[in-house]
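Page 47, continued from p. 46.
Same chain as before, 163 aa.
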Amino acid sequence: MKDRNRLPQAISSAEAFDGKRIRVGYFGEGFTQMLADIHEFGCTIDVTDKMRGFFRYKFGISLKKTTTQIKIPERSFIRAGWDQHGPEIVRKYNELIGSAILNGVPPEALLSALALESQGKLQEFARDLRDPANVGLTVEQKGSSNPLVDTGNMINSMDHKIE
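Result:
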């Protein structure tokens, strides 16, 4: 008769998961990070004389003197995407964590799989987002009314971390 007490390994495996978490989004600094922040939270840009000249030169549009700000609306795709898909990811984690611990699955393996799935869901959410729509000038310049898709660089630059 052989004793197969796997409790010590399960406890060790469970401890390896302690405090670990996944993060999905944009890390660091740069243009893509700034662009993602603008879309996620919106922003207000003060109109300057230089900006008025740029609009006249680039687009043939004269901004009204009463136009003192340009507002880019919030198009949350990380927070709203997580609100939509997060509960399913958490449910999946809760289903898998027990067997992962019992079978000695490294935390990074399970968390990496869930992070990749989360990232994919948020990228899909961003591609499908349609509201608020782009203004006419933006549609004309991009050739598309999809507010978060132009070159695809911002969405494709989304990343994930395990901490």
